[in-house]
Design a protein that fits this description.
- This protein has helices spanning 6-15, 18-23, 32-50, 76-99, 103-127, 134-146, 149-171, 177-199, 208-226, 229-235, 237-251, 267-279, and strands spanning 200-201, 204-205.
- By secondary structure, the protein is an all-alpha fold.
- A hairpin with a 2-residue loop joins β1 (200-201) and β2 (204-205).
Length: 285
Amino acid sequence: MKKRKIWAGLSTAVLVAAPVASQAAGMPLHSHAAVEAKANQHLLQLAQAHQGHAAPATAGGEGEGSEGEGAAKLAPPLHLYRGIEMIRGHLIVGNELVEAGRWADALPHFLHPEEEIYASLRDDLKAFNIAPFQAALKSLSQTVKAKNKDAYARARATLGERLAAAETAVRAKEEKGLSFTLETALEVLQQAADEYEEAIEKNRIANVVEYQDARGFVFEADRLVGTVMQDASAKDAEAAKALKASLDELKAVFPAVTPPKQPVKSASDFLSAIANFELQLGNFQ
């Protein structure tokens, strides 16, 4: 899985818009073209600022790594919260498949949290004095392997309690809860973009698991933003509406847990929707 290559791609995409900004430079600030130009310039600045997150190129030209390694340079609270929410994203799509009786298809989404995310969170969990929950992850995946629905329900509830306790512990130390939550959602969306790009080959969904990972992360980011939407609306109603519009656009890319034959959006258009989400974050600092 790719590591943090999203903004390099975004930079290429928004460079195309740069001439629009130049042409509109002399227009009145209130004109539609000037506003659009300002947004385009902001997108370019965002892309350039985030290029440092991109992974080093390998022999194959791509940075490869696990979901947990992708944000190793984040501050510990954001790194930990991101990891917890990504685990929840896996559980969302895994549960959809379990409910459909597709246990084998669901299994990767219960294995990935332990195999790709949890190890990167161990130090953060210790720093925040949060009890480890690897055993709960393993117990849940074992119930999926066994296709035991009753045991699965119990194990999922137990893990949900552990994740909620971890979230509470992290949020308790964050003074700017609204902006912190939105920044976490952005991090999860960025990982979704990596997964979505991995899913697409020659304008078709070739990797179903990656498509489902991206779906889970987008829907979890939407759930997370929903927990602070009332506060966001109170602070800036228009910016909050724009956040929701971006999330609705991203959710529409995943009409079902089983992917369509052709992607609803290209990877670059998916990135653009995330960029629109990020453009609003400065309004909630």
